[in-house]
Amino acid sequence: MLRIAVPNKGTLASPAAEMLREAGYRQRTEQRDLVCRDEVNDVEFFYLRPRDIATYVGSGDLDLGITGRDLLVDAGSPADELLDLGFAGASFRFAAHPSTITTVDQIGGRRVATSFPGVVNRYLAENGIAADVIRLDGAVENAIRLGVADVVADVVETGATLRQAGLAVIGDPILTSSALLIGRDPATDGRRGGAVAASAVAQLVRRLQGVLVARRYVMLAYDVRADLLEQATMLTPGIESPTVSPLHREGWVAVQAMVLRSDVHKIMDELYDLGARAILVTGIHNCRL
Ligand SMILES: Nc1ncnc2c1ncn2[C@@H]1O[C@H](COP(=O)(O)OP(=O)(O)OP(=O)(O)O)[C@@H](O)[C@H]1O
Ligand SMILES: O=P(O)(O)OC[C@H]1O[C@H](OP(=O)(O)OP(=O)(O)O)[C@H](O)[C@@H]1O
Ligand SMILES: [Mg+2]
């Protein structure tokens, strides 16, 4: 049975459970449940603090986990990134009061408050900057106002928290984060499972990839005159190749192709201008490509 770590609370918890549900897995119904067995799929889910998930997966005590890239780097865990799950996007950045520090060079010799000391120390070491890292649990933006630090390093999503604290970002992002599926690469991990576990992991990855594709793409269907088919299918090449079926109406064909959800309105306008009609968009619930 595969054992998988899922965030129990915070930003990652509900989108992670939602994605697993969409991939066909059973999830807990009570917020306080710590374990959920999915007998049908032969998987057991453990609900853990997202910060601890890289540790459990890195040690091999759990097979897979969902956590943020910043949390994975912070833990210094040997777990590998298996799949970017496309949610909980954020960057991890330095910030300070703009009247004090505005460039990364000026961080040397200063006090940096963060709840991600692993990420910050790695960055400082790689860039040859000597600074004093102060570990705090959260609300680090307050550390400057309270005189505990000169610089903060924290997760920035909208930037609203920094603005409210009167702080401005310094330099480029230290890293760009999003939710990941993490695990031990079966090619390099001799300790658990063997072929059966590797194929179970591959199946779970395929299911999650199916959800990602279903979220990004829609199915577009339309009718077009056969002599315009080449031009129309240039607009809708599909992923492999569009499906073209005969229509009862002489000289016309029906076309079906997957298109990016973000492009669908532009493509529909272009197809209409070309002469296509009965242009229909439908959602994809799931897929295996
Ligand atoms: N606006 C955000 N605030 C915090 N974390 C975010 C945000 N957007 C994305 N994330 C990502 O979510 C993960 C942090 O989740 P975590 O549950 O540890 O913190 P949280 O959501 O701030 O919860 P809490 O601080 O209440 O424990 C990180 O990978 C982070 O990059
Ligand atoms: O750029 P924004 O959209 O404002 O989001 C980023 C902020 O949200 C998080 O704080 P959270 O509310 O989780 O509090 P915490 O610092 O106590 O974890 C994070 O630590 C930043 O402070
Ligand atoms: Mg937080």
Automatic annotation (TrEMBL):
A Pfam match is: HisG_C
Q: Histidine biosynthesis HisG C-terminal domain: which residues? A: 214-286
Enzyme Commission number(s) from the entry:
2.4.2.17
Provide the ATP phosphoribosyltransferase catalytic domain boundaries: 49-209
Required co-factors: Mg(2+)
How its function is modulated: the record gives: Feedback inhibited by histidine.
Q: Which domain of life is it from?
A: Bacteria
- Asked if the keyword Chaperone belongs to this entry, the reply reads no
Instruction: Return one GO MF term.
Output: ATP phosphoribosyltransferase activity
Keywords carried by this UniProt record: Amino-acid biosynthesis, ATP-binding, Cytoplasm, Glycosyltransferase, Histidine biosynthesis, Magnesium, Metal-binding, Nucleotide-binding, Transferase
The protein's annotated catalytic reaction(s) are: 1-(5-phospho-beta-D-ribosyl)-ATP + diphosphate = 5-phospho-alpha-D-ribose 1-diphosphate + ATP
Q: Which GO terms describe its biological process?
A: L-histidine biosynthetic process
Q: Name one GO cellular component term.
A: cytoplasm
Primary location recorded for the protein, binned into one broad class: cytoplasm
The listed locations are: Cytoplasm
Give the pathway annotation.
Answer: Amino-acid biosynthesis; L-histidine biosynthesis; L-histidine from 5-phospho-alpha-D-ribose 1-diphosphate: step 1/9
The family annotation for this protein states: Belongs to the ATP phosphoribosyltransferase family. Long subfamily.
PANTHER family associated with the record? ATP PHOSPHORIBOSYLTRANSFERASE, ATP PHOSPHORIBOSYLTRANSFERASE ATP-PRTASE
Q: What is this protein called?
A: ATP phosphoribosyltransferase
Which organism does this record belong to? Asanoa ishikariensis
The organism's lineage?
Answer: Bacteria, Bacillati, Actinomycetota, Actinomycetes, Micromonosporales
